[in-house]
Amino acid sequence: MDAATVLLDDARRLGVGPSALYLHGEAGPPVLTVETEPAAGGELCAGVFGLLRERLGVIGSERIGRLVIPLLTARGWFATLVHGSGAALPIEIERELALRATELSVWCTERGIGRVPRVAGGGDLAPRRYRVAHLAAQGLTNAEIAQTLDISINTVKSRLKQVFVQLEVDNRTELSHVLRRLAPVREVPLGVTRLRSVTVTRITP
Q1: Which residue among 94, 116, 119, 144 has its CA within the 20 to 30 Å range from the CA of 16?
Q2: Are 21 and 10 contacting, i.e. CB atoms less than 8 angstroms apart?
Q3: Per-domain boundaries in the chain
């Protein structure tokens, strides 16, 4: 969210209209939105695919006033940036925004951030399960986790088994990858939150 906030603040300084970043879940729709003007967010998100088709359609056609940039990792499309509202953006600003979007894609890829994984049952990891999962992903043994959380080893094993089933992973390496992808939404409450110069919306799965 910090990286998204910096990018959207930069767009605002460049004189771009409302801007939003949508972090997608594995099913496709956004699960987290960071936007400069919350009233415009739903409107910007609506028709993203249509806007992309319009921009990528006929070469030499009249430029439209919204810049839609998919953010990609090696595993595919994980987020979408939408900038602007009505008037066509100057080409220099479009280039600058595209470059910054590329930098954000690289930054996210380096940190293992991608599409937010599906949690079986459509919910979230319970806090106790998440604490065990987080420590396991950091490389702690079951005994070390038990000592850290002051619980029994059997409780650690039980919670880890539940986590593996809920996140549909088979080992701790896969668990660490999935937790990195869950990280951007993990600490954000459901609903709308004002965060410095942007509004963050976490959508119910």
Answers
A1: 116
A2: no
A3: 2-116+187-202, 127-167
The two structure tokens encoding residue 27? 């099913």
According to the CATH classification, is domain 2-116+187-202 in 3.30.450? yes
165, amino acid identity: V
Task: Using the predicted structure, report yes or no on whether residue 6 has a pLDDT greater than 50.
Answer: yes
pTM of the model: 0.73
Residues in CB range of 68: below 8 A, 6 or more apart:
48, 51, 52, 55, 80, 81, 82, 83
CB contact at 8 A, 3 and 104: yes
What does the angle CA 120 – CA 121 – CA 123 come to, to the nearest 5 degrees? 95
Contact between residue 74 and residue 108 where contact means Cβ atoms under 8 Å apart: no
CA distances from 198 to 1, 10, 68 (A): 10, 12, 19
Q: Strand, coil or helix: what is 97?
A: helix
CA distance 90 to 97: 11
pLDDT at 147: 94
Task: Give per-residue pLDDT as tens, 110-162.
Answer: 888 888 887 765 567 788 898 999 999 999 999 999 999 999 999 999 999 99
